[in-house]
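User: I'm curious whether this sequence folds into something compact or stays loose and floppy. Could you predict its structure so I can see for myself?
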Amino acid sequence: MRDNTTLANISMASFSPLERGTVQSFDVESVAEQTRRPMRARALGEALGEAQAAETEFSERKQVYQDENLEAIERVVEAEREGNTLRRRADRTVQESWTQWREEMAQHAQNVSEARAQLSEERVVADGSTFDPAAADMIDVTQYDGEIATVRVRILAQVQTPDGQDAQQTLDVAIERAELVGDDGTPLNGRWLITAIEEVG
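Assistant: Here's the prediction. I'll summarize afterward.
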């Protein structure tokens, strides 16, 4: 298939002609039983919101401490930059506290980053399956519950390789779609998408 616009509407997987060749024809060898898994974008979206709220709350408390101890923190930062040891006990105490504040701030940032990555990975099929190029706005799948349905199809493909040779390849193709339900019980079924194409053997 060479129509990139049409291809983008039915496939999230790449079968690059320059790297893997061009499928000339294929026969379906088998179709596995459909499997289903929960679509967890709503729960992961809520987890991201909680992580962001915790980061914001901690950042505000950190800023208060920084404002109250600004001069000492500046001495701490300068000593650390120059590799010097702080002589005043009060400054060393601030250094210990400021080190802990920075470590906890970094942990909050990591928590947010990981939560965002988990949500991004989880929602990719649902976003693609429910995407409507004619709609003004994308559907926010974090506002839905539901499942991702998957069917795996094994095909025997006749492929013209990038160097012009004819080859026969067995390919395992994953086809998925989102089947969602809104808060009011209204179903929202996305279209089937090719999400993976893997050579077998």
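Summary: Residues 42-128 form one domain. The first helix runs from residue 4 to 10.
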